[in-house]
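Give me the fold.
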Amino acid sequence: MTTQRLTEIVSRFPSQRILVIGDLMLDEYIWGNVTRISPEAPVPVVQVTSESYYPGGAANVARNAREFTPHVAVIGLAGGDPAGERLIELLEKCGIDTSGSPRAAAAATTMKTRIIARNQQVVRVDRDRRSALTADQTRGLADSLGRAMADASGIIVADYGKGFVTQQLAEFIGDTAHEMGKILTVDPHPHTSLVWRGAAAIKPNRAEAFLAAGLPQSVPVEPALEDRALLEAVERLRALWQTESLLVTLGEQGVLLFDGDAPPYHAPALAKDVFDVSGAGDTAIAALTLSLCAGATPREAAEIANCASGIAVGKLGTATVSADELLAACARL
């Protein structure tokens, strides 16, 4: 892809309207220093210097999309606890529309706490909460989803397995997106075993591909195009999901794209320094979707998503990538 073509695609990002649907979470970062080992156990003692909070899960996908376009809305269940209130406040401060997200006073918000010392993650603490919708919320959601989808250029479903995305909801989104002629992309969760049909693209990582296909995970093979076990898993998933394109993210190996009858396409990883992989998949699905909405071919969209995630892993924390960073990084290739 030439620099001129990349610039042409990225220049169309700001006019796209992106709707993100999925599990909303809050990411907490506790920053500090380690100077000694605890006398109570062989673990480091972290002296806390600061704390920061970011949208997580589907909310982080929306935050990544917001870097490229001012027209972003998110729909997911928002808890009535302090974490949920903080999350909604962060999203609205970013300029992300949360009006379609049902609020549940009794629901607890999933929060992931990462303790960082000297730019290294010491430990992650998860407060996982499954928050399924009530019958009344489900009925109201169909109306708000229909309106939001009609207004969107592209729709991203980010399923983190916390209960918001059900098979019934997946079928409604897929059918509605197909009827409206909307671009639908999915970042699936393998443990929910949801069947996705009507999507323009689905983006599992390598481990998720094996789990979703019901196959044991194998050791990665070089070159990636000769990874027979992975190719078998992808063949099963394409038959199950009936998606137009399947993009498998491979970490340090880059990405593999399967699109229609075209031969599989491998784009190698671009990151030179990896500081934190947190949220890299969120960056990839946001860039992939915006690219498809902006008229990119699946191969061009895969290259842009690969480049964007390569930038994200070079940052500490659940980072976002700007259009200027994306253009500069791709221009150096």
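The CA atoms of residues 114 and 124 lie 4 Å apart.
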